[in-house]
Amino acid sequence: MPDLTHFAELGLSAQTIAALEAKGFEEPTKIQAACIPLLLKDQVDVIGQAQTGTGKTAAFGLPILEIVDPNAYQVQALILAPTRELAVQNAEEINSLKGNRRLEIAAVYGGASMDLQLRKLRRGVHVVVGTPGRILDHLRRGSLNLEHLKFVVLDEADEMLDMGFVDDIEEVLKQTPVEKRMLCFSATMPAPIKRLAEKFMRNPEFVQIQQDINTSNLTDQIYFEVREGDKFEALTRIIDMEEDFYGLIFCRTKVQCDEIGQKLNARGYDAEPLHGDLSQKQRELILQKMKNRTISIVVATDVAARGIDISDLTHVINYSLPEDPESYIHRVGRTGRAGKKGVAITFVGPREFNRFAFIKKVSKNDIRRESVPEASEIIGIKRARILSKLTEILAEEHDPNDTFLPLAQQLLEDNTPEQVVLTLLNHFYKDELDEAKYKNIGQGGGDREQRRDSRYSEEAGFTRLFIARGRKDGLDKRRLIDYLIEQVGARDQDLQDVSVRDDFSFVSAPLQVAERILQTFSDRSSEGRPLITRAKPDNPNGKNLSGRTRYDDRPARSGRGGYEDRPRGGGGRRSRDDYQPYGRDTHGGEDERSRSDEGSERPYRSEGSSRPHGMYSGSGKGKAFPKSRSNSNGKKW
């Protein structure tokens, strides 16, 4: 392959070179340098293999623009793409490269107005870019004529086959002229693509571009060992570490995309979910907002993100581990492009290490392990950022006749400089430096005992509370937290280590918040006892072998055999609670577990729901917990 380092050396016309220069392109990528001369000089079919983000669109788009006759208003090139987003993106890219040529390029895909597409096709177009399903619709309607076709292109062919389009593709190809040229571009070359090539292509030239490494040298690849329940907290810390985070977050399911998007919005981040349940108009709006920097985060599934090309991403976050090495490479390849550095971070859960090791081995990438940033580290970075920004502003020259000068002098006359500055900082930065808003995170890995003991750090000033209500009374973690917030004005982050059992619950709170809770519920009795009391240590020193405080399950009481009669401890594995970032409840060893509870815990939301189960019956000093369904004894709480 000749070493062609400038577009002018590829045989392109001056008109095309001018269009490329206007877009700031000077040097072709490897796939462009290999394919463009081949397609311009020889009447051959081409199979091009190169990773996503290597410039494949221009590799086939530029020769098509050179060869298509602008005077003949007939469909001369058909480009098939796996997704609507990629179809639109390809059409826009080719349209931007045509210069002053009078060529009509149409994007044809499902979810958009059929009438508009029909009108455009009737007026006459030169190049059609579309998804296989909608192209077939037009062929069956007779609204798309391929009689004069010179090129048919399969872009991201492996993705189209993965999405089940092979039958549609074959049906489309059968309706194309025999003499047309066929181009097939793909990141991978599985057997079905080879069979398709043998069936429909004529002695194709095979162009394979090997990257220097499987992902860009400009992409810093990191992984964190983190439990499922801790992932969101880890994500927010990563975002807060960067002043200008601009990233794509990959999740496995649509439900998870929605959930993470909602949680990010609730924490004040500009984020949108992107998945297959959104209308085409919604998807296009989200992508436009991302490109305009109206939002800085898109949370997407692999399928929804296929074909999306967002420039200058600083981060790609694998919130859910990719299913295979190729998916990992596709995801990570979206950052560290065009000479700009990027960061790819993968969350790996305790049960995912075998799959992650396989991904790492096959992709041949150097992915280093790091620890999730500590809250204190993030606060330090934020503090330095604020100081730097304010110092920069103070260093600017100020007009001595500034209209704010009298006001500033008045403030300093009435207050000390420290009071003025402190008040302004508190007003403008509010809780930016509040370390309490970052919840505790347990690092994944290590043996079971280490993982259990690292789960809950018994922080100084926290009090463990016992609540004489549990799941049998209709209580769950979210209802307990929300009700305490409503009754005593606590913050969500004040209520830690929440543990809900069949008949009782535990929660830890800072000393002052715990005192408010105890005072508020002091006259709300349950069988002659306060509804909420301090949990009691189970030995004189209040410590177990791990050094953590252990608590008795609950104070003994009569009428139900006492708690000593219940069997305790004993193995088992709990289902995770996605809402609570601490995952399985293991605080205090086996004293906060009973065999009857094992595996019975459930998330507070049903899948796809954004509201907690149940409603509250009101608040106020005279009411106990909200009424709910009857428990096993027919009583209400």
TrEMBL record:
Domain DEAD-box RNA helicase Q per the UniProt entry, residue ranges: 5-33
> PROSITE patterns per the record?
DEAD_ATP_HELICASE, HELICASE_ATP_BIND_1, HELICASE_CTER, Q_MOTIF
**Entry keyword annotation includes Cell division:** no
Q: Does the keyword Transmembrane apply?
A: no
Location of region: Disordered: 523-637
Give the enzyme's EC designation: 3.6.4.13
Q: Compositional bias of type Basic and acidic residues: which residue ranges?
A: 549-610
- Pfam families with a match to the protein in the record: DbpA, DEAD, Helicase_C
Compositional bias ranges of the Polar residues kind: 628-637
| Protein name, entry field | DEAD-box ATP-dependent RNA helicase RhpA
Q: Which organism is it from?
A: Sphaerochaeta pleomorpha (strain ATCC BAA-1885 / DSM 22778 / Grapes)
